[in-house]
Write a structure and sequence with these properties.
The complex is a heterodimer of chains A (about 100) and B (about 200). Chain A has 4 helices and no strands. With about 100 residues, chain A is mainly alpha-helical. Chain A has one domain: Helix Hairpins. Chain B has 6 helices and no strands. Chain B has about 200 residues and is mostly helical. The radius of gyration of chain B is 30 Å and the shape is elongated. Classes of the chains: A mainly alpha (about 100), B mainly alpha (about 200). The interface between A and B is large, with 63 and 61 residues.
């Protein structure tokens, strides 16, 4: 018995949902960034699963998954830089504290 | 891929994702996230996508280095002391996460012939293609959930502003009452001193 693309997609959906949960509930910018990475890793799982379609691994799903990995790297690099900058300037990494900067 | 191996990897992935978004200590959550990326890389390798594995492993390593060097050391916990383990808005996160997760499952897991325009094979690129009634309905539901989530988040923000205003009003009232009490006590003290001085003279 083999796992088909549907199983990968279901796993991807669960991981994405957990990422959204973290995104809404985390209060630290680092926590939010990690939740976004969890969300972005979900398509990688789904695309790896889609590359399984047919008789063997195909290049299309793999190429898209590679793009998704590059997106994760870009998000982590940019997000970590921003989180660090905000933390240094505001003295806190809590998003609730950052909201108060508006006043 | 073997279903048993996939099931084991899937359970590990879900547990690590849960740890990455749920652990209160940021360092531990970061470690769980790095492990999650490593396990996804293993999953990709087991599925024959070695390039994805090769790309994911340095990403996980880079993430570990970032977490080790720049993550805040002073405030290790995402959760202030005394706060409950579950965040106050857990129900909102759970609802939005579950809704979007179900939609992702529906969009990606449906691979029937009616989900694809034309006679080609189902693929993620055609999953949201225009002209398909299913795709249109899913797009409408996605938009509705997005608007609902936005409204919920906005409402929460509005509630927080209202709460801040109430707190500020209460603080002002308390200050005013304290000032009045102090003024009364000062006047009483002054009267007492005056009567003592009058009795003595």
């Amino acid at each position: 018995m083999t796992a088909g693309p549907g199983a990968y997609a279901a796993l991807s959906g669960v991981v994405f949902a957990l990422g959204v949960f973290g995104l809404v509930t985390r209060s630290s910018t680092w926590g939010v960034l990690m939740a976004i990475v969890v969300m972005l890793s979900a398509p990688v799982i789904a695309l790896v699963g889609f590359s399984q379609g047919g008789t063997g691994p195909t290049a299309t799903g793999g190429a898209l998954a590679l793009f998704a990995v590059f997106a994760i790297v870009a998000v982590v690099a940019t997000g970590a830089g921003l989180a660090l900058l905000v933390q240094r300037r505001a003295g806190s990494s809590d998003v609730d504290d950052l909201m108060e900067l508006e006043d | 891929m073997n279903a048993i191996v996939f099931s084991i990897l899937a359970v590990v992935i879900v547990v690590l994702a849960l740890a990455a978004v749920g652990l209160p200590r940021l360092r531990e959550a970061g470690a769980a996230l790095v492990l999650l990326l490593v396990v996804i890389a293993i999953l990709a390798a087991a599925s024959g996508q070695y390039l994805v594995t090769i790309a994911l492993l340095p990403a996980a390593g880079g993430g570990a280095v970032v977490g080790r060097t720049v993550m805040p050391l002073g405030r290790r916990s995402d959760r202030p002391r005394g706060e409950p383990v579950l965040p106050r808005r857990w129900w909102l996160g759970a609802a939005v996460g579950a809704g979007l997760g179900v939609l992702v499952v529906v969009v990606l897991a449906l691979s029937g012939g009616d989900f694809v325009s034309g006679s080609g094979a189902p693929s993620p690129a055609t999953a949201l293609g225009a002209g398909e009634p299913n795709a249109l309905v899913i797009a409408v539901v996605l938009a509705a959930i997005g608007i609902g989530a936005g409204l919920l988040l906005g409402r929460t923000s509005h509630d927080e502003h209202e709460q801040e205003a109430r707190t500020e009003a209460r603080r002002t009232r308390d200050e005013r009452m304290r000032a009045r009490r102090e003024a009364r006590e000062a006047a009483k003290r002054a009267r007492r001193e005056a009567s003592t001085a009058g009795g003595g003279g």
